[in-house]
Amino acid sequence: MRLFVAVLPPPEVLDELAATVASLRQQAPDLRWAGRQQWHLTLAFLGEVDERVLPELTTRLERAAGRHPARELAFAGGGAFPSARRARVLWAGFRADEKALATLAASVAAGARRAGAPPPDEGRKYHPHLTLAHCRRPTDVSGLVGSLTGFAGTGWTARSLVLMRSYLGGGPPRHEELAAWPLRK
pLDDT means per 10 residues in the chain (185 residues)? Predict the structure, then answer.
């Protein structure tokens, strides 16, 4: 099963982002825009994980969540991977304690690795973002990134980690919540 660990923003915060993204969609209808139901902050993409690993994985992720306090986050700005002029992904950024968020992501990845589900992107620098759209081929999205520059959403508190399953094929990816654990208060 294809898994990732994420933080899910609250609906009212997604409403703000959706209002901003609506005008971007009109500017670039050829991009493959992620649906709102797919919006999340990935802490660790785990890829294909054997179901037999799930019991140990859930134990490890619960421990990781319990070691880290709830985090204040807000959407802020945006960018593109690998660059705005040759983008494959357009994203919304976050205003947060980036060091603390990276530490949380590393703890989640370490727990997954110990459970037998090593994240395929482990070792890369963690860059918190929410994917808004994918480009079919490298595309100049400088104008869209510029439109996101001044965006600053309302702050919110991330209070839990969520283990998500992703289903591919037959249209846009679908996500299912498998388990959630509270962050330390």
Answer: 97 96 95 95 95 97 98 97 97 96 96 92 88 96 96 97 92 90 94
Question: Please, is 37 exposed, middle or buried when counting C-beta atoms within 10 Å of its C-beta (0-12, 13-18, 19+)?
Answer: exposed
DSSP string spanning 19-69? Answer: HHHHHHHHH-TTSEEPPGGG--EEEEEEEE--GGGHHHHHHHHHHHHHHSB
How many Å apart are CA 91 and CA 101, to the nearest integer?
17
Structure confidence at residue 118 (pLDDT): 86
**Number of domain units in the chain:** 1
CATH number, domain at 138?
A: 3.90.1140.10
- For residue 58, what are the domain limits? 2-182
pTM, rounded to two decimals: 0.93
Q: Are 147 and 139 spatial neighbours (Cβ–Cβ below 8 Å)?
A: no
User: And the tokens for 115?
Assistant: 């459970």
